[in-house]
Amino acid sequence: MNSKKVASINKDICVCCGACFQECPMSAISSESGRFMKVDPSICVGCGRCAGICPAGCITVSDRKPA
Ligand code: SF4
Ligand code: SF4
């Protein structure tokens, strides 16, 4: 189920615009207290669509760490 890549969001930069939330085909992104967004790594498939659309450039897609 897990892909080799996973997205993560820098909450210090996120402006909570919701673009990544709308773009994610897996619904892996949700709001954390309405202040910033977070990725559920157990759902994310690492497609990178969220990182491509984020206007603040705060999403990175990187290799998953070995379990
Ligand atoms: S990398 Fe793809 S699946 Fe993962 S959170 Fe971003 S849009 Fe969703
Ligand atoms: S697209 Fe970027 S700035 Fe907008 S909510 Fe997502 S992570 Fe935050």
TrEMBL record:
Top-level taxonomic group: Bacteria
Per its record, what are the GO molecular function terms?
Answer: 4 iron, 4 sulfur cluster binding; metal ion binding
In its keyword annotation, does this UniProt entry include Amino-acid biosynthesis?
no
Q: Extract the Pfam families matched here.
A: Fer4_21 (PF14697)
Key words, A-Z: 4Fe-4S, Iron, Iron-sulfur, Metal-binding
Q: Where is the 4Fe-4S ferredoxin-type domain?
A: 5-34, 35-64
Q: Give a yes or no for keyword Nuclease in this entry.
A: no
Q: Where are the transmembrane segments?
A: none
Q: Which PANTHER family match?
A: ADENYLYLSULFATE REDUCTASE, BETA SUBUNIT, FERREDOXIN III
Q: What is this protein called?
A: 4Fe-4S ferredoxin
